[in-house]
Amino acid sequence: MTDLLSRLKQALGPKGVLTDASDMEAYAIDWRKLFPGKPLAVVRPANTQEVAAVVSLCKHYGTALVPQGGNTGLAGGAVPDGSGREIVLSLSRMNALRSVDPIGMTLEAEAGLVLKAAQDAAEAVGRLLPISLAAEGSATIGGVIATNAGGVNVLRYGMTRALVLGLEVVLPDGSIVNGLRHLRKDNAGYDWKQVFIGTEGTLGIVTAAVLRLLPRPTQTVTVLVSVADPQKALDFLVCAQNELGDSISAFELISGYSIKLVEQHFGIKCPIEASAWYVLIEAGATLSGLREAVEKALEQALESGLAHDGVIAESGKQAADLWLLRERITESEAKQSKSVKHDVSVPIPTIPDFLQAAEEALAKAAPGTIINCFGHLGDGNLHYNVLIKDHDPVLINHMVHDVVMAMGGSISAEHGIGQYRVAELESRRSEPELHLSRQIKTALDPLNIMNPGKVLSRQGSPS
Ligand SMILES: Cc1cc2nc3c(=O)[nH]c(=O)nc-3n(C[C@H](O)[C@H](O)[C@H](O)COP(=O)(O)OP(=O)(O)OC[C@H]3O[C@@H](n4cnc5c(N)ncnc54)[C@H](O)[C@@H]3O)c2cc1C
């Protein structure tokens, strides 16, 4: 190990290798502080060649590497285990914005560039990088690609995968593959970049990317509406889509309990009457008439009884205040109680059935739990968190996931598997799907040095 560390220092220089426990502290534990690890070292390469040099050395010594971006992941994927033998490879020094092209509508950046900086660069040339999440001030381009991040604009623009045009990666054998093409259309051979999107650093290290930009809407309208139940929210989604087409970028379902939590812990007042459920909608357009179309859709919803009450933001400040009601839910929940979190998706029409079945199952087997549910209704993705006292979290987890599976859903809609959900994934996915995943892993990483134990168990991976 000493030999490896001194060769890493030779390759990266003194700034590139951290070994003091205090220097490594922030890299050793995840954002939720659920998965404390113990790195052998933290390496901070300055460019792709240095990443390749680190990977080659780790391959030579059979030492595992854990890629890390902003360390905002919610599945414990970016932190090492507790053995003291894994190396964290932080992309934080590789944060150059290489180009922004408003005509070809592309942005090229190194993997460590913070998402917000990339959004701002796109805005500066009148374009939109639509990947948007509450962690955007720390999450990195490499991290959002490695997790195929979702966020609030998926309904209109798709997940991160839909916005990646080109990638540069360092493979587990230390070789560099450069596919940084700025092309909208490229059907020449296998689209190999897909293998590295959403695979959480288990197959290679993303060192740079080309992302697709979009025209920036010149008008945005934000609306908060109260609805009686999730079925009404769903009917309203259909009605709003008929009226507003694909100008809707966010259609968020929020339970009355979630709103109460935010009111209680942050003193933010919901501007419409109390209700069991709410919907927060954002629409954007470049052509005029959006506001009138939104008013018409809201009027129709109120007249037909789909909605009880609603407010359209009159200013940017009011829109931001409405969004705070949504954005502060997670922090309010953390202040309120212990919880078991689920990031699930089900086919959109089954959302009301899912909610009813999950509530019934919990009432029967775990009385006294409280459901804090909110999420991206338009994507079929719910954050279904269960506030517990002395209940068994594992039992609750299985119960909720059983209902999800019965509806044909997924146990991870956007946060990934990391180390948090490995056992759940392996017990829920079919053997042929798992076998295929292991074959891909073995083909690219036969020594299992790339983020071992994440997404797939160590047991099932090559040794
Ligand atoms: C408050 C909050 C809100 C959030 N909201 C959302 C949301 O709405 N939607 C959503 O999808 N997620 C959300 N997240 C989760 C998180 O922000 C995303 O998963 C984000 O994409 C992680 O980026 P990161 O740079 O922090 O990656 P990290 O946390 O550093 O890493 C995440 C995973 O990617 C791997 N990785 C990181 N960089 C690279 C690289 N260059 N090459 C290969 N592998 C790499 C890591 O090994 C790890 O497995 C939220 C998190 C927080 C804290």
Number of helices: 15
Q: How confident is the prediction overall: mean pLDDT?
A: 96
Strand content: 15-25%
Q: Regarding CATH, which class of the largest domain? A: Alpha Beta
How many discrete domains? 4
Number of strands: 19
Q: How far is the N terminus from the C terminus?
A: 19 Å
Protein structure class: alpha+beta
Bound molecules: flavin-adenine dinucleotide
Largest sheet properties: 8 strands, antiparallel
The CATH architecture of the largest domain can be named as: 2-Layer Sandwich
CATH topology of the largest domain, what is it called?
Uridine Diphospho-n-acetylenolpyruvylglucosamine Reductase, domain 3
Helix content: 25-40%
Radius of gyration: 23 Å
Shape: globular
Low-confidence residue ranges? none
Please provide a written account of the structure.
The chain is built from 15 helices and 19 strands. By secondary structure, it is of the alpha+beta class. The chain has 4 domains: 2-90, 2-Layer Sandwich (Uridine Diphospho-n-acetylenolpyruvylglucosamine Reductase, domain 2), CATH 3.30.43.10; 97-215, 2-Layer Sandwich (Uridine Diphospho-n-acetylenolpyruvylglucosamine Reductase, domain 3), CATH 3.30.465; 219-330, Alpha-Beta Plaits; 337-406, Alpha-Beta Plaits (2-Layer Sandwich). The strands form 4 sheets. Strands 12, 13, 14, 15, 16, 17, 18 and 19 form an 8-stranded antiparallel sheet that branches. A 5-stranded antiparallel sheet has the order 5-6-10-8-9. It has a 4-stranded mixed sheet with strand order 1-2-4-3. α7 (230-244) packs antiparallel against α9. The longest helix has 15 residues, at 230-244. The chain is globular and about 75 Å long. The mean pLDDT is 96. Residues 31, 66-74, 77-78, 91, 111, 133-135, 139-140, 142-144, 146-147, 149-151, 200-201, 205-206, 330, 414-415, 418, 451, 454 line the site of flavin-adenine dinucleotide.
